[in-house]
Amino acid sequence: MQDLPTRSLTELPLILAGPILRRTTPVSVTVWVALREACEVNLQIFATEDGGQKIGNSLLSGSRATVAIGQHLHIVAVTADRGQPLQPDRVYAYDLTLTAIGDGSAHPIPLLTLQQAMSAPNTPPPKISYFDHQYPTFVLPASQLADLQIVHGSCRKPHGDGCDALTILDTLLAASATQPAQRPQQLLLTGDQIYGDDVAAPLLWVATHLSAMLLGWKEQLPVSQGRSSREYRPVNEFTIGNRAEIATRQGGFTAGLQGRERKVCNHLFSLGEYYVVYLLSWSPVCWPSNFPSGKKWANRDRQAAKQWDREVGHLKQFVDGLDKVRRALANIPLYTIFDDHDVSDDWNLNQAWCLRVLGKPLGKHVVQNALLAYAIFQGWGNTPDQFSAGRSGVQLLAAAEKWAASGGTDASTDREISRLVGMPSNDPLTGLPIFVSDGEVSILDRDPDALTWHYQIESNCHHILVLDTRTWRGYHLNSSADRVNNRSPIDPPMLLSPTGFDRQLIQPLQSSAAQELNRFTLIVAPTNLFSLEIIDWFHQISLRRKRVFAADVGDAWNIHTPALAQLLTTLFVHLDTVVVLSGDIHYGAVVRLSHRQINPTSSSSVLVQLTASAIKNEEVSTKLLHTRLKDLLLPEKIRHSIGWNHPPQMLPFQPNHSRHILNQPHDWECRLEWIPRSSRVVVSENRDLSLLVSRRSTWLNRWCQQLKWWKNPWFQDGREVVGLNNLAVIRWQFGEIVQDQYWFSPWQPTQIVLSRFTAPLVPSRMDTSRRT
Q: How far apart are CA 75 and CA 67, in angstroms?
C-alpha cells in the first residue's frame, strides 16, 4: 500500500475540523471542534453592530477541556452559557481561544485565537467569516414566524454523483450575512451525514492512514471461528477493496447481498475509520494533496484502475468545495439525526437485520463503533446537556478516552461503551440480541442510562421534534399469533414502538400544546411518510418477493399502515397543522395531506411533508424523475384513505369506485396531493470553476449526455420532484409554507437554480361529491 502524501502532524494546523456551530439558544451557544493536541478551549460570544460588521461587547462565555479519543485526535463541544442572554433578529459573533493542557508536548502550544489555531505553518488562515473582522457569526431563530428560515437536506456521499449542494449554503449565507431577517437561521441534516457502507476506495485509503496516524493504535476486530470461538485480527488485515465477504459473512451486513458486493467492498470497520470519515466530510485539512493513479494503484487490473480514477475525480471535486462547507457550518447552528448509512445500509431495517448483524461479534462491534463516533461527532452538539456533569454523555466521553488510552483492549470499557450507546445485550446461549416486549411489539433491549438520540429544538416562534426512528423500532414478538398470521422477521416494523411514540411525540406534544400554543411545531422524520407511487409499487413487489434489503422495504412509514395511522392520529390529536421534514429518498418534493376527523367530532387538519435529498448522491433514476418524462408517463394522482383510531389502521380508496368502503363506519378520512414545483429560476452564477462536476460514467449517463434535448432547460423543468442534488430552505408566508429547492443546472453547471414549492397550510376540501 502506498504512503499517504500528506504533511506531518507538526505541519498541520491545530484545528483539524471545525469550528462547527451547534445547539444555539438565547442562554447557551455550543461550538464543536477537532484538534491534534489536548487543549482547554474557551468560547466567547460577542454582540455586533452595523449588521455584524463591528464587534461589540462579550455577552456569553464558557470553557471546556478536550477529550482525547486518539493520541493526536482531541474533540470538544464547548458551551458558552455564562453572561447575558441573546436576542433574536440580531447578528452575533464568536471566537475561540485555545491553551495547551499539560507540559509533556514536544511543541507546547501557547494561547491561540481561532484564526491562529486554524492556520498551518507558513500558510494563511482559511476564510471562516463573511466579514472583514474574520469572526464567525450567527443569528438566533426569528422572533416571528414570517421571518423564520430553516435549511434542511440529507444524504451526502463524498463520491456520490453530482456537485455537493451543501456548498450552496455558503452562497446563501454570504448574500444575507448582514440581514438577520433574510439570513438562514438553522440547518437540519436529516440523515446519512456519512456513509459507513458505500465507501470509495480512495477515501478508505486516506481514512486508513489517518486513523493510524491520529489514533496511534490499530484496532483488533472480533472474527468468529466456528459457533463458540472467536479471534481478534488487526484492522489493517482487512484490505481496501476486499472487505465484501467479511462484511457480509462475518459482519452480517446486508448492503452487499443480491449482487451488490461492490457496495461493501470498502465498508468501514474500525472506530478510527468512522472518526476520520467525519473529519474528511467536514474539513479539507486532512485530505492529501494528490492521489496515486489508478494504473499505479491497481497494477494490472484495468477495471479497478478505471473505478479508482473515477472515484478520485469525484472526491477531488468534493474536496474543492470543503472550504465553502466549512465556512457555512461555522456560521449557522447545525442539528443532525442519523439514518441508516451513518452506521450501515439497512441498519435496524427489520428484525431479520438485527438478528443477522447484532448476533455476530464483528457486526455488533462495528455498529457500536459507528454509534460511538456518532455520539462524539454529532450527538454531543445536538444535546450538549446530555454531556454535562453527572449525565450519561460524560460517562461515555470518559469511556472513549479510556478505550483510546488502552489501545482498544480494555474489556470493561468496551462493555461500558456498549451500554451507554444503547447496544442490546446478547443471549448467552444463542448469542442473538435480546428483545423485550413493548405493548404488542418487541424492541431491542437497552440500558436505562443509555443516551437518547431524539431531541427537541425550541425558539420563540417554533418547536422542532427530531425523531429517532432507527433505535426505537417495534418488531414482531415471534409469538404463536405471529406464526399463525404468517408474520416474518423481514416484515416492515413500526418505525416507533409504543414507548417511542410516548417519549418522542406524545409527551412533548402534550407539554407544548398545554403551555405554548403560539409556537409552530415541526417534526423531523428521517424517512418519508409518503413516497412516489412508483416507489410504493416497487416496495410492495419487493416485499412479496422477499427482497427487502435491496429496496429498503420498511423504511417508509406508509409501508406499515397501522403505524402510519397511529402517527397521523397522534399528531392530529394535538395539532391542527403539522409540517414534517424528511430526506432519505434522493429527491426533493412537497406533499400535502388534508385530514378530516369524523368521530368523535368533525374537525379538519393538514400535514405538509417537505423532503430534501440528496445533498450529494443523485442517481440515474432520480435524474429521470427530475425531468418532464415523469410528468408525461407517471404523473402522481390524488390519493384518498379512510382510517380508524382503535386499533389504528387505514385503507386507500377511490371515491368513484369504493362506495362500499366509504359506507363502513370509520373515524377519519384524508386526501394526499403532490404540490407542483414552480418553473426554475436562476439564482446566481457560481464562478468557482473547481466545482464543475464530472458525471458518473454509466452507459445511461453517457447516452443521455449525447442527446441535445437532455440538457434543455425546458425538459429539465419537471413538475413534481427535484431529482438532482439539492438543498432546501423553508419559510412561511401568508398562511402558506414555501420550500425553495436549490440545485445546480445541468445545462450550465456553474448556475445555481431555484425551484419553489408552495403549500397552503389549510386542508383541501374532501371529495364527497361521488359518495351518493
A: 5
Asked if residues 41 and 183 have their Cβ atoms less than 8 Å apart, the reply is no
Contacts of residue 395, Cβ cutoff 8 Å, sequence gap at least 6: 416, 420, 449
| Residue 139 contacts residue 180 (beta carbons within 8 Å) | yes
* Residue 312: all three cell numbers together: 478520485
User: By the 8 A CB rule, do 93 and 46 touch?
Assistant: yes
Phi/psi-derived region of residue 735, left when phi > 0, alpha when psi is between -120 and 50, beta in every other case: left
> What's the rounded Cα separation, in Å, for the pair 333 and 369?
26
Confidence grade of residue 697 (pLDDT, cut at 50, 70, 90): very low
Instruction: List all residues 6 or more positions away from 638 whose beta carbon is below 8 Å from its beta carbon.
Output: 671, 672, 673, 767
Say what the pLDDT of residue 446 is. 95
Longest dimension (CA), the chain: 86
d(CA 537, CA 683): 36
Backbone φ and ψ of 249, nearest 5°: -85, -50
Mean pLDDT of the chain: 89
CB 133 within 8 A of CB 92: no
Residue 501 to residue 585: CA distance in whole angstroms:
23
Is the pLDDT reported for residue 587 higher than 70? yes
From residue 401, alpha-carbon distances to 29, 215, 365 in Å are 25, 11, 18
Pair 697, 678: CB distance under 8 Å: no
**538 CB-side CA count, 13 A:** 11
What is the three-class DSSP state of 760? strand
Pairing label, strands 577-582, 603-611 = parallel
Q: How many CB atoms lie within 10 A of CB 716?
A: 21
User: Of the candidates 612, 613, 599, 605, which has an alpha carbon nearest to the alpha carbon of residue 578?
Assistant: 605
174-209 core/surface letters (b: 16 or more CB in 10 A; e: else) = eebbbebbebbbbbbbbbbbbbbbbbbbbbbbbbbb
DSSP E strand boundaries for 356-511: 435-438, 441-444, 455-458, 462-466
Cα angle value 257/235/277 (rounded, 5°)? 75
pLDDT mean over 404-429: 95
DSSP class of residue 136 equals -
Tens-digit pLDDT profile for residues 601-634? 778 999 999 999 999 999 988 999 998 888 888 8
Residue 169 has pLDDT above 70, yes or no: yes
Which amino acid makes up residue 370? A
Q: pLDDT tens-digit profile of 458-505?
A: 998 999 999 999 999 999 876 545 554 567 899 999 999 999 999 999
Cβ neighbourhood burial of 604 (10 Å; 0-12, 13-18, 19+) = middle
- The Cα-based distances of 50 to 58, 92, 574 in angstroms read 16, 11, 42
pLDDT tens digits, one per residue of 525-553: 999 999 998 998 888 898 888 888 888 88
Which are the contacts of 114, defined by CB distance < 8 A and separation ≥ 6? Answer: 15, 19, 95, 96, 97, 98, 128, 135, 136
Whether the bond into 19 is cis, omega within 30 of 0 = yes
- Give CA–CA dist 424/447, Å, rounded: 8
Q: Which of 534, 468, 526 is nearest to 501 (CA)?
A: 468
- Let me know: does 153 contact 166? Beta carbons within 8 Å: yes
**CB 14 within 8 Å of CB 112:** yes
Question: 39 pLDDT exceeds 50?
Answer: yes
What would the grid cell of residue 478 be?
415471534
